[in-house]
Every structure is written in structure tokens, then in C-alpha cells.
Predict the structure.
Amino acid sequence: MPDRRIISADRQEDERQFEASLRPRTLAEFIGQTNLKENLSIAIQAAKARGEAMDHVLLYGPPGLGKTTLAGIIAAELEVGFEQTAGPVLQKKLDLTGVLTAIRPRQVFFVDEIHRLMPDVEEMLY
Ligand SMILES: Nc1ncnc2c1ncn2[C@@H]1O[C@H](COP(=O)(O)OP(=O)(O)O)[C@@H](O)[C@H]1O
Ligand SMILES: [Mg+2]
């Protein structure tokens, strides 16, 4: 019998949808950070105009600042797919290989908590 719990660390589908509905979907909806938005907008427009993948972007700052949201916005504004993983999830080089094979050209690949990457996995991305 499946383990039914009232509380669980797993994210529920309705929670995921509710959380997604709170996130701004465009740069225009994202509040503040004018300089950042301007820089990102230029990079996004340039990548789209050239039909190329956008350069790598490092978003840093305390939790809740909008890094994950911005990563999603970048993909939406580029009109490309969005794939997300996290440093602690990628324990072995093989984990990264699996994720990378599913990635389409030009799509956004967001690595959350990148400071937690294992050195050899990091080396592979490099
Ligand atoms: N500048 C902003 N404008 C609008 N909403 C924001 C902004 N910064 C954060 N949020 C909202 O706050 C919540 C947490 O943001 P999130 O992107 O998960 O932060 P982080 O990934 O940096 O921890 C999300 O619901 C997000 O939409
Ligand atoms: Mg985040």
C-alpha cells in the first residue's frame, strides 16, 4: 500500500501550479532591478535576432530575490523551452549526461544552487 501522509516533502501538483501562478512571466511584470532587466532584455533581443543560444547568465543573491523566476522569464522571453535541475541533484557526471541529452538546442538550462555542484560535474559543464 502506498505511504499516505498528510505532510510530505514532495511537491504537490496543485502547489506547483499555485506557485507558478504567483511568478511574473515577463520582464515587464518583474518588479525593480531596472539595470538587470535592461541588460537581460538586450541579451535576449540579441540572441533572438541572431537565432543563437543566449550566453550564460549567473544570477546570485539571497533566497527569494527572484533568481528562479528570472530564469523562467528568460526562457519565456526567448520563446524557448526551460529545463531545471539543481547542484545537489547532480552527484555524478552521469546524472548531468542524462539531463543534457534531453536538452534541445537554444533552450534554457537552469542549474539552481550551482555552488553545490561536485567539482567533476562542474568540470564537465565547463
Ligand atoms: N522582483 C520581483 N518581482 C516580482 N516577484 C518577485 C520578484 N522577486 C521575487 N519575486 C517572487 O518571489 C517569490 C520567490 O522568488 P524566486 O524566484 O523563487 O527566488 P529565488 O529563486 O531567488 O530564491 C516568487 O513567487 C517570485 O515570483
Ligand atoms: Mg530559486
About this structure: The chain has a mean pLDDT of 90.
